[in-house]
Amino acid sequence: MPLRHCLLAWCYKAKTENWTGETKVLTNRLIYSAVLCIFLFTGCAANKTYRTDLSTSCSIGDSSCNSSLELNGAEIENSSVALSFVEINDQGLLRERGQLERVRDLISKRGHLGNQAVMVFVHGWHNNAQADNGNVETFRRLLLRYSNLYPNIAVTGVYVGWRGDSWLLPNIISFWDRKDVSIEVGQGALVDILSTVEKAAIETKSRMVSIGHSFGGSALFNATRSMLQTRLDSPPAALAHEEFPMHAAVGDLILIVNPAFEAMQYWPLHSATIDRIRKNKPQLDRGPRMLILQGQKDWATRYAFPMGRSFTVPFEAHVSDSDSMDAGNNLPEWRLDLFAIGHFKELNTHDLVDADGPNADLAKCGHGVESTGFKGGAWTSPNANIRLKPRANFVPGDPFWVVYDTMLSEGHNDLEDGRLTCMVADLISTYTKLEPLLFR
Question: How high is the pLDDT of residue 423?
């Protein structure tokens, strides 16, 4: 029961029971003061479905829209961009299954028109699916920008909304329960959403890119890690044509930005992947299937995350006989459990650095990437003039990259830095132009 509900119950008890004398007066004063302070300085965030209209659509960007479908054209078939919403509650359950059914039908309809790129976005802390939410607006701009780059591609967006805040003020105290909920979301309905989207992408031979930010990155990773680990050894039929380990994929690319989950969650997938690669010795110069991008200046994951974890990590059991200590790894479990994956330097595979080309040309983002490849585990964004440079510990053929950015990102929520978004546009375009269509 929330604290303020408990205090209200105590108030009622104090009024109705036969409390007498100074004890009753003092108790009532303390309780009423506490209740007043809590109502003044805190409050529960809304716990509701924002996209309740499952039958009509609205114009993309409409700040008053409550439909689960936004279009930038009159009809699904002639809209260059379509944005659909699916919402998940705190228990990891779909709020409206009709939202997911609408997503499946949308991808199917637009996929049969020709080229289609499906982009899934899972928002992070403090956000939701409300029409004027900051992350909703950011995702709209990303879809429209990509559509402008490739007018012959039908761009279909899927925004996964969940309750990114449980407290309004001070919302910093929602760190612990929102972290837990991100795991519930990832292990719950988000698996169903991604599986449904992937199946529709396979049937329509569409591209599929999934993006997660902050606790949304935690949700996305939790939804995909078991699937990825299983597919290392047993790829589904739709991916059987892919070379090992490129068939360890959920869609064409998973992009996680400033993720708020500990390195311990990543370790089992990393350990299994490196073990299989060293045994199979693949010779590949291919792009990543999952790219985790971490900004050095992201104070939330660099400082606040380990501070928050420090309240629980000391009470968890950690041993020294796990594979994190084998084969010279020497990575104590408590460290893996304390620090966010992007700031765990032993697991960083790449650095984001300036490339040797001309200055960034943000007017050309997404264009001219046909000659750009992943030779030697490196990749260059020609228009952002950025290079993802592999570190010495990068294992060739590893399809999961953890990139450390000391240059671009200015903070945890900096999702729209010009060069950063240009790099993402170039990366997605590289998959569109260079990487073989995964679901062919």
Answer: 87
